[in-house]
Amino acid sequence: MTTPTPPAADLPAPTDPPAPIVPAPDPTAPSTRALRVLALCGFLLLAGCLVLTAVLGLVDAVEGDGVGGGFLTAGLWSPALGAAAGTAALAVPRRALVAAQYALAFAAPVLAALD
Prior knowledge:
Number of strands: 0
Radius of gyration: 27 Å
Distance between the termini: 91 Å
Helix content: 55-70%
Structural class: mainly alpha
């Protein structure tokens, strides 16, 4: 008894390129909707950190030498840069943009406190 051989057209030719390898999506990665919600919540955090930074700047102006230094200036610029990162995260949801938004929000009062 002989086994039937498949037709030659069904077998891959030795000169055919290999099939492309497509990486599987990460099952634990956050969805784009979740990243956008986190970016929206980051704007509330930015507003709160901006108020805290302003309060720390005013306290330093009253109790300190009355002159804002470089750290206070950097602390006041930090929420603006965080808002830019948050806006970019809303348009193109990326984990790194949301992380930058939160890092810049937390950096604002820390920088103002260093002044």
